[in-house]
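Suppose you are handed a protein chain with no further information: no name, no annotation, nothing but its sequence. What can you learn? This example shows the usual starting point.
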Amino acid sequence: MGIEAVGELVRFAVRTRLVDIPDDITEFVKGLILKTVAGMLAGSSMPAGRKVAEFVREVGGLPEVGVIGCGLRVPLWQAVFADAFLAHASELEDDRFRSGTSWDITVVPVILPLAEKLKLSGEDIVEASAVGLEVLSRTSQFFPQGHMGLTVVPGSVGPAATAARALRLDEGQTRSAFGLAMSGVPVSYLNFGTDAHYFETALQSLNGLVAAELSKHGMSSNPDIVAYLARLLGEDRVDAKKIVDGLGVQWQLRDIWVKKYPCCFYTHRYIDALLGVMKEEDIPSGQIESVTVHVAEGAAEICNRPEPQSLGDLQFSFHHALAAAMLDKDVNFSHFTEDKIPEPRFKEARSKVKVVIHPEWASTFAMDTPAHIVVRLSGGRELLREKRYPLGSREEPLTKVEFRRLFHKFVSGILEPQQAEYAADALSNLEQLTKEEVENFIKTITVVDTFV
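A reasonable first move is to predict its three-dimensional structure. Written in structure tokens, the prediction is:
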């Protein structure tokens, strides 16, 4: 059954057309592309993003395609690597958590440079993105977050599906691309909060592209993803039927949660809960005596960082993210700069946040258990809130207007207002763009240089 399931997945990747994709899925895919472009633009202005931009600038090579937000033209492989790094450096990746992790930050950075090089239409971009996101969602659904200290396994098959589609590979070539990409780099929990975290996911994108290009040149492989995963996890934990059940009808990519704050996703439901109770009860930050965060033992513990010492620590700290929400009733890039580490008001607010870890809540997947917070006010009153799903999940979806609002929030100060509105319009109507309109759009987001 394993290899047969892979064959069905390959046929889906090659044959699916825009008319086969439900309208709501098309809209959601466009929303994810919009968010990821915002993340790449924002990532280009981050310290880690500047490092990778300088790296590809120094390596040089043929000026084939642009790098988003960097004012650079470099070879295709370098652009894909850099764009993927930038997409994650902003900490704006959109993730699925209720089963094995899948996300958009390794798929979208593959298709945009390919679209520029191959002169693809907007419809081509939407099709390739939808296919890649769905393949990634279905192949990565079995690997639990944090198993063996890793996540997103296999992480490069989805990007390979996107690249294969853009390159117009046939079923045999796409099958080979899946096998070549299968054992690509996983994501290590040890690297959360460091630049290596972004490096690993950028390699997943690059590996997918290289796998597709090698298969185009006749490279062979064994694409039995089911057997590969069964040997890692045990045969009882991998069900080939789940890879293809409802394929093309029940879209697993829709289970991806949309990030609204540039920090680790493990903090988001707690931020939503705190902002919600502050709004409902009209609570000024000065009245909050403490915020107690109750988390399950396991992956979320990586955000138990009461005294952050670096930018990465800030982005992976319950204490800092909730301090920002407490103080400013929002969480944005301005809160994640190294000058916030010693700032007295943030130090005081962070000291109000307590994390309680519950071993009895441990589960296979990191966010199977609801997020619990207790907000204690200066008068002794306690407010309890529980949030199972974040705003931006399938259960609490964002509207088109909310997607656009996030885009403008994250590109403010990077794109001029007119450029931002043009880009948002283009991506909101992506499937209607001609090849020439795609070329103009990509030029807009690649010629801007955040180094200036």
